[in-house]
Design goal:
Blueprint: E1 3-4, H1 6-19, E2 24-32, E3 36-43, E4 52-56, E5 59-63, H2 68-71, E6 75-81, E7 84-90, E8 96-97, E9 103-105
Parallel strand pairs: 1-6, 2-5
Antiparallel strand pairs: 2-3, 3-9, 4-5, 6-7, 8-9
């Protein structure tokens, strides 16, 4: 199970409305970053038939089947701090992550 927090859903909705798009957030995992893998976030136009979909408050989080094993069980949140604001993946599969939180290793 992968979940999108209500705070993250609200932020996706705000960004989508500002850009005139659907509230559909795509999360994928790609090779690279300082720890081996990195998270990629972006608003999606559509979802594929084989995408995993989780919905929170009318906002859909979509994940492709290749990325899913790397982030299974994660919570996607939106956090604001003195250092800035960002989407954050709380990933139980990550053995380590970089200081900025955008890349990880398994």
């Amino acid at each position: 199970m992968i979940a999108l927090s209500p705070r993250a859903a609200l932020r996706v909705r705000q960004i989508a409305e500002k850009q005139g798009k659907r509230p559909l957030l795509r999360l994928s995992v790609e090779g690279g970053g300082c720890a081996g893998f990195q998270y990629r976030f972006g608003l999606a136009e559509d979802r594929a038939a084989d995408d995993f979909v989780a919905e929170t408050d009318g906002v859909a989080l979509v994940i492709d089947p290749d990325s899913l094993p790397f982030i299974e069980g994660s919570l996607i949140d939106y956090v604001e701090s003195l250092g800035g604001a960002a989407f954050q993946v709380k990933n139980p599969n990550a053995a380590s992550s970089c200081g900025c939180g955008t890349s990880f290793s398994v």
